[in-house]
Every structure is written in structure tokens, then in C-alpha cells.
Specification:
The chain is α/β, with parallel strands linked by helices and 504 residues long. It has helices at residues 2-18, 21-28, 44-50, 66-82, 106-111, 125-130, 152-163, 194-210, 219-232, 236-247, 249-252, 271-276, 302-316, 322-336, 340-351, 360-385, 424-443, 455-462, 470-475, 487-494, and strands at residues 37-39, 55-61, 93-99, 119-123, 144-145, 407-412, 418-422. Strands 1-3-2-4-5 form a five-stranded mixed β-sheet, sandwiched between helices.
């Protein structure tokens, strides 16, 4: 009889339990990895300073506290929505934990007035990195105490109220796209694209190394492009990483092994170090996109990140560098972009240029027009094949929502497509602001905490920074004389420097 009663109760409760089944499994599954990031006094400020998220939740706990141990699965359930490469909504909220039982974290926990465990605080990551928290009557502070986060459901409800959002524990990746924060028509969003530029740079470098693209005929184009990144990449971390590769390029790709008959650069003793090297820092690539995130898994992403990188380079160069930058980018795409059809189309547009560029304006507008030509071609192909991103269809850019002054008039062409009469002076002004000042406004947050450079100083310094080792300079002297002008000086400053031992 007791067995029948138990079976009956299970059947009655099945429907009510069905909706929460996945939640319970997520809370109790011991095989799911932790995704909330453990921070300590050494990593706290830097990690939060570099976070691409708009907001952060930090849990202060003690490892000996039973309530904290019981709460951890609840916290991890919410963290899985936002943290890590498998997150449903990456780049929006960064969730971290600090163990106040460790004596090394005592000062940090005191900084945030931790008086009980677990304790949760909410605010912009930069505000956590810049200061602390004191309990006050003022509820309008930039760091807030979460007073209702006892379960995963209640914590997420608190977050939804704060953000006026509708996140759910049942959300799946690329569903519920009303919460897709990446809106290309919001001019402020480009500031967060610096993280995607880092992601694209790291992915491009990894592809080059993993697919063994560095050969006799591609070594010079690669070094020339790395010089461009050292001088003008919007992320200081990527500039530093590119410089590290150039400083050690003689060891990675020994110039005395190069010959016209050799098809591939022989492996050097540093090969494994190069494969593990992180050109934009140890945490990049992160495995997800923010500004360049599509509404489907196979849209936008890497190609979007590369375009943002190229546009940002185009507006940061000086007039005298314009044509060398053009050839560097064209040669890089021709030798290292592995999408064959895209590579051929881009190379064809590069080959159509017959007169050297003499100014930043000319090159910037050429790259902008080239991007629009690519979009026109893809618009038709994606419409015919149904492969486009419904949330982010290809468009002629910039749209009027971003730059109404860029448009003079529109008229129908004979083939039925729309022709636009652009005000190119306004387009150039917009590009410089959008991919220059606005983009770099976020990249200044990626500087080392020890750096004293301001954003303005950072741009000025990068505009004149050139990094070329002697061997590399000899190999590409003719092709890159403009970038090599300061090679000897730079090398003399670096020749006593020992190669890095840690590359990750």
C-alpha cells in the first residue's frame, strides 16, 4: 500500500515538477564545471577592470561557512547564464567570488565592509576595481547590496528588476534574443567592440600558427602587419603582444634559414612557445563575442571583429603611412585569410587601386567603400540562400540612425538598386569619431594599472611606436621602409632584454 501511495504522489507531482526539472538538475548536477570566477586580493582589481561586462555580481563568502557551501550551487546556476564561453548571455554580467576566510583577502573584504556570509554586491565592474563599499541609507550608490538573492530564482529576479530585463533560468543560447545587448545602431556600443577586436586578433594569430601559414613568402607580410598592430592597434595588450613577437621573430623564424628555394620556415626551438603565446593577453580569446555577437551561432563574430580592427587601424594612421597601411592590410588578407572566396574578392578590390594613397582620409574612405561593396554582395547572396542573420542583416553603412549628416540624397539606379549620394567629409568625420575616439574610450580601461598613460597619450604614443628586430628589418627593408625608420633605436632598447619564459 505504501508503495502505491508513493507512486500516486509522484504521478500527481510530476506536472508541477516538470517545469523546474532542468533547474533542479542544474543546481544539483556535480558534473557541471564552476563558472563564477574566484578572485583574490592580487587579481580582483585587474580582472574587474578588464571585464567587458556592463555589471558585476561579487559574492563574498568563507570556505568554512555551511550556508556558503549550500548557496554555491544556487549562485553557479545564475552564473552559467552570463559567464564563460557556453554562457547564454555573455558579456552582460560578470559573476565572481571572493573567499574572505583567506588571510590574503582580509583587507579586500574589509574594503567592501563584509560583515556576514554569504554577502552579494552589484555594480559596474570598474566601480569595484576603483573603490569599496560602505553600508549606507543611500540606495542610489553605484555599488548596491543584494538583499534578496537567497536562491537562484530570487537572485535572478533581483537582477531583472535592477536591469528591467527578463532573463530566465530556462534561457538557451541564441534564444530569447530580446535580451541581445549588442545593438549595432547604438553609437555607444562600439566602445565595447575593443573586446571583440582583441578576440579577432587572437583568433587570427592562432589560425596562422595552427595552420602553419608562416612560410618563406609570407614571413615579410606577417611582420609588416604586426608592425602596423604595434603602432596602431586600439588595445594596448595587443600592441604589447605584437611587439613581443617582433622582438623574438629572429628566434621564431630565423632569417638565416630563409632562401628562395625553401618553401616553409624551419621549426625553431621556440615553436611550442609561439603556439602557446597569447598575443592579446592570457585571457584572450575568451570564446565569445559582445559587439559582434550574432543572433545565431554561425553569424557575425570573427569576420565582424576583423572589420572593426581594420577600420580602427585606418583612422589611427598618419597621412604618410596611408599607402603602406593599405598594402599591409591587402597582403595580410591575401596571405592569411582562409575564406577563399572572401580573400579573392578583397584582393580583387585591392588590385583595382592604381594610384597610391596620400592621406589617411583617402585610405579610410576606400576601406569604408570596400566594406559596403562586400555588404552589397553578401546582401544578395544571403537573401537568395537564406543564410543571413535576421537580427543583423547586411546593410549599407553607416545607416542614417548613426550618421544622418553623411547622407546628401538617395536615388534609384537603372538596375533597381538604391544609390546614395554621400557627403564624404561627414563620412570621414564620423569614421574617425566612431572607430577612433569612441572605440578607444573603452580600450583605455585595458591598460596596465601601473601605466600612467591617459587615453590621449595612449593614442599619441601608439601613433609613433615602431617595433622591428634587426633580422626582420633586413628581410623586409624595401617593403616596409616607412615602418623601419626607428628599427635600430627600438632594437637597441630591447637587445639586452631576455626572451620571455612564460607565454600564456
Amino acid at each position: 500500500m505504501s508503495r502505491l501511495i508513493l507512486l500516486f504522489l509522484l504521478l500527481v507531482s510530476f506536472d508541477g515538477a516538470h517545469s523546474s526539472r532542468s533547474i533542479l538538475r542544474a543546481v544539483n548536477d556535480p558534473d557541471l564545471p564552476d563558472v563564477a570566477v574566484d578572485l583574490n586580493s592580487s587579481s580582483f582589481d585587474q580582472v574587474l577592470k578588464e571585464s567587458p561586462a556592463s555589471f558585476a555580481v561579487v559574492e563574498f563568502f568563507a570556505q568554512w561557512c555551511p550556508a556558503c557551501r549550500n548557496y554555491k550551487p544556487q549562485y553557479e546556476t545564475v552564473a552559467r547564464l552570463f559567464n564563460g564561453p557556453d554562457a547564454v548571455h555573455p558579456g552582460i554580467i560578470f559573476m565572481a567570488r571572493v573567499d574572505c576566510a583567506l588571510t590574503t583577502n582580509t583587507e579586500l573584504c574589509n574594503r567592501f565592509s563584509v560583515r556576514h556570509y554569504p554577502m552579494l554586491l552589484w555594480g559596474p565592474p570598474s566601480k569595484f576595481a576603483a573603490g569599496g563599499w560602505e553600508p549606507t541609507e543611500d540606495k542610489k550608490g553605484e555599488i548596491l547590496y543584494i538583499d534578496d538573492g537567497r536562491t537562484s530564482e530570487r537572485l535572478l529576479n533581483w537582477i531583472n528588476k535592477q536591469m528591467r530585463s527578463s532573463f530566465s533560468l530556462e534561457d538557451k543560447k541564441y534564444e530569447n534574443e530580446d535580451m541581445l545587448r549588442v545593438n549595432a545602431l547604438d553609437p555607444g556600443q562600439i566602445a565595447r567592440a575593443v573586446y571583440d577586436v582583441e578576440e579577432a586578433t587572437a583568433n587570427a594569430f592562432n589560425i596562422i600558427v595552427e595552420t602553419k601559414m608562416i612560410k618563406y613568402e609570407t614571413r615579410a607580410p606577417l611582420i609588416k602587419f604586426l608592425q602596423l598592430l604595434v603602432a596602431h592597434h586600439p588595445s594596448k595588450r595587443c600592441r604589447r603582444g605584437s611587439a613581443e613577437i617582433l622582438v623574438n621573430s629572429d628566434e621564431f623564424w630565423p632569417s638565416n634559414l630563409l632562401s628562395e628555394t625553401q618553401q616553409e620556415v624551419s621549426p625553431s626551438p621556440e615553436k611550442n612557445m609561439l603556439k602557446s603565446f597569447r598575443i592579446c593577453g592570457k585571457d584572450v580569446p575568451r570564446g565569445y563575442w559582445i559587439f559582434c555577437r550574432g543572433s545565431k551561432n554561425d553569424t557575425r563574430g570573427f569576420s565582424c571583429g576583423l572589420w572593426v580592427l581594420l577600420h580602427s587601424l585606418s583612422v589611427r594612421i598618419e597621412d604618410g603611412e596611408s599607402h603602406l597601411t593599405f598594402t599591409s592590410i591587402c597582403e595580410f588578407v591575401q596571405n592569411f585569410f582562409i575564406c577563399e572566396e572572401c580573400r579573392q574578392h578583397f584582393y580583387k578590390m585591392c588590385s583595382s587601386v592604381s594610384v597610391p594613397f596620400n592621406s589617411t582620409r583617402d585610405f579610410t574612405l576606400w576601406l569604408w567603400a570596400t566594406h559596403n561593396e562586400v555588404n552589397k554582395r553578401l546582401m544578395k547572396e544571403e537573401a537568395d540562400l537564406g543564410t543571413g542573420d535576421p537580427k543583423f542583416p547586411k546593410m549599407i553603412w553607416p545607416p542614417k540612425q548613426l550618421c544622418s549628416s553623411c547622407y546628401l540624397s538617395s536615388s534609384k539606379e537603372t538596375n533597381g538598386s538604391v544609390g546614395i549620394d554621400w557627403d564624404e567629409d561627414q563620412v570621414f568625420k564620423f569614421l574617425v569619431s566612431y572607430y577612433g575616439k569612441t572605440l578607444v574610450s573603452k580600450s583605455k580601461d585595458l591598460s596596465d594599472s601601473s601605466s600612467g598613460e591617459t587615453a590621449t597619450e595612449d593614442i599619441a604614443a601608439s601613433a609613433h611606436a615602431v617595433a622591428v628586430p634587426v633580422g626582420a628589418a633586413l628581410a623586409i627593408a624595401v617593403a616596409s621602409c616607412a615602418f623601419g625608420a626607428l628599427a635600430c633605436f627600438w632594437r637597441s632598447q630591447q637587445k639586452n632584454r631576455k626572451p620571455r619564459k612564460s607565454w600564456s
